[in-house]
Write a structure and sequence with these properties.
Layout lengths: L1 E7 L5 H15 L6 E7 L11 H9 L14 H6 L2 E4 L2 H10 L6 E3 L8 H4 L2 H19 L1
Helix pairs in contact: 1-6
Length: 142
């Protein structure tokens, strides 16, 4: 079982998009039983909130739902549980370094920051970035 956790600032845009995109990709690859996939935040700002509506709409355009999501902050127990933790940008990495005992399981999703649609408003670009990163993860493990 490969356990993957995606991280962004508030867990309402990028990390849940990555969670549900990755779940869709592994399902289509017939590899659902090989993965456990979730997402979390580095901040407490959006605790309990669902996926941000424009992010939800972007995923729906691609046939992906995200019902039942509630934002939460990463815990040390989650760090210990998951094999790989993928963060969206350098700011997330700095938060993780302050919050966790170690960060050897933490990696950027891409070799660059994933566009933050909270600031850019461009959920399509964020979708493209996340899809690219998730496809690379799938290629690595399947």
């Amino acid at each position: 079982m490969i356990k993957i956790l995606f991280i962004c600032h508030g867990n309402i845009c990028r990390s849940p998009m990555a969670e549900y995109v990755m779940k869709d990709l592994v399902k289509k690859a017939g590899a659902e039983a090989q993965f456990e996939i979730a997402s979390a935040a580095v901040s407490r700002e959006e605790l309990g909130n669902p996926v941000y509506p424009p992010a939800r709409r972007e995923m729906a355009k691609h046939g992906i739902g995200c019902d039942g999501h509630a934002a939460h902050q990463i815990t040390q127990a989650e760090y210990d549980r998951y094999d790989r933790i993928y963060y969206m940008d350098r700011s997330n990495a700095r938060y993780l370094q302050r919050m966790l005992k170690e960060t050897s399981k933490c990696f950027p999703l891409l070799g660059r920051d994933v566009a933050d649609p909270w600031y850019t408003g461009d959920f399509g670009q964020t979708w493209d970035d996340i899809l690219e990163g998730c496809q690379k993860i799938l290629e690595e493990f399947v």
